[in-house]
């Protein structure tokens, strides 16, 4: 069993592995898969105001907020991507080579991404009204991670979740520059600067809401707080001892349950990124939650999150149509009856993850640095 786990274990460039971080990736991809599974089995519009939710609609409500798993990914990226830069500026470790950094990011992200795009391009004309002629410009825009910019925030028909990867690429390009914030020598000032910038940048979307620039929602401008808070977590990781306190569990668990209620509360929405980062930090350092997140198969599935994210939409479509619908009848209503086919569909997505990971992701992961 241990050997099997090693086969699926995430490979890191530094060789330093944080299983609890992959556990958070599992939480993030689980939220996203449940949200998109929900779309198939429950009616629109999605219930957003919790004050109007009744009875079985609570299940619908919580699953309908699963989209914020994407923001969990953004915080994790802010943490991981800037870690070597922060280690250099704070502890004097080897300075990252920008060319090597960008090359590794390109190989790690681009090849599986392009495979998913190409499959969408080849298959979509046979199952939809799209033609190859219509899709070719979108394939070109997507290959440059510019679909949202060129098509004003439209979702990519070839790969609808790709808008988040475009935001990730924007952050990757800016990360070496943003990481200069770690040059601030005083720890309190450094943390305060990162936190202040994260909170202030959370107000950026209010400047263009209800204008012709709402497409900026699909760019880094709308999601910068999450990446900056990930950078703050990096700073704390490098400068503070790991507390691992049971008290963190009693705070983090209620916060995970409360966050979906706050996502649509305008008066405090600017605090959501900070609360999410606090929740994730405490989850990584709470005794019970860290133990749970570090379980081998939780961490392993979290390590496969990129493969799941790229292909889960297509798998959901195939699994629901050709397997689940043949076994269990679902009803388009806010009903507990729909939970069984929904859970079965989501479970089959995760069961397909190991094969996808071994074929499309692991071959392009960085090899550990020789010591």
From TrEMBL:
GO biological process: polysaccharide biosynthetic process
Source organism, top-level taxon: Bacteria
Record-annotated Acyltransferase domain positions: 19-353
Membrane-spanning intervals of the chain: 21-41, 68-90, 111-128, 169-185, 215-234, 297-319, 339-360
Molecular function as annotated in GO: acyltransferase activity, transferring groups other than amino-acyl groups; hydrolase activity
Keywords: Acyltransferase, Hydrolase, Membrane, Transferase, Transmembrane, Transmembrane helix
Keyword match Transmembrane helix: yes
A GO CC annotation given for this chain: membrane
Name under which the protein is recorded: Peptidoglycan/LPS O-acetylase OafA/YrhL, contains acyltransferase and SGNH-hydrolase domains
């Amino acid at each position: 069993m241990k050997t099997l786990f090693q086969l699926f274990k995430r490979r890191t460039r530094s060789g330093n592995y944080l299983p609890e971080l992959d556990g958070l990736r599992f939480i993030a991809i689980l939220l996203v898969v449940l949200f998109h599974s929900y779309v198939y089995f429950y009616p629109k519009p999605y219930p957003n105001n919790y004050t109007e939710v009744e009875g079985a609609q609570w299940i619908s409500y919580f699953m309908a907020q699963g989209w914020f798993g994407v923001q969990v990914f953004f915080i994790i990226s802010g943490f991981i991507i800037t870690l070597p830069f922060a280690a250099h500026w704070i502890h004097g470790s080897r300075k990252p080579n920008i060319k090597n950094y960008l090359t590794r990011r390109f190989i790690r992200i681009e090849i599986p991404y392009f495979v998913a795009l190409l499959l969408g391009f080849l298959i979509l004309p046979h199952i939809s009204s799209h033609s190859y002629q219509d899709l070719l410009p979108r394939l070109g825009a997507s290959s440059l991670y510019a679909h949202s910019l060129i098509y004003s925030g439209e979702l990519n028909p070839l790969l609808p979740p790709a808008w988040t990867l475009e935001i990730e690429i924007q952050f990757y390009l800016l990360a070496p520059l943003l990481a200069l914030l770690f040059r601030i020598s005083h720890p309190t000032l450094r943390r305060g600067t990162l936190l202040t910038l994260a909170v202030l940048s959370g107000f950026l979307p209010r400047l263009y809401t209800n204008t012709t620039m709402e497409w900026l929602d699909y760019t880094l401008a709308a999601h910068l707080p999450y990446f900056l808070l990930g950078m703050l977590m990096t700073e704390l990781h490098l400068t503070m001892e790991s507390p691992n306190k049971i008290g963190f569990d009693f705070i983090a668990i209620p916060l995970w349950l409360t966050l979906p209620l706050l996502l649509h509360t305008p008066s405090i929405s600017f605090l959501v990124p900070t609360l999410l980062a606090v929740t994730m930090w405490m989850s990584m350092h709470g005794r019970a939650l860290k133990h749970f997140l570090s379980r081998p198969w939780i961490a392993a599935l979290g390590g496969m999150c990129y493969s799941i994210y790229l292909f889960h939409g297509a798998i959901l479509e195939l699994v629901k149509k050709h397997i689940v619908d043949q076994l269990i009848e679902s009803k388009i209503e806010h009903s507990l009856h729909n939970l069984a086919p929904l859970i079965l569909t989501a479970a089959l997505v995760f069961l397909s993850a190991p094969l996808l990971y071994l074929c499309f992701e692991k071959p392009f992961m960085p090899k550990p640095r020789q010591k």
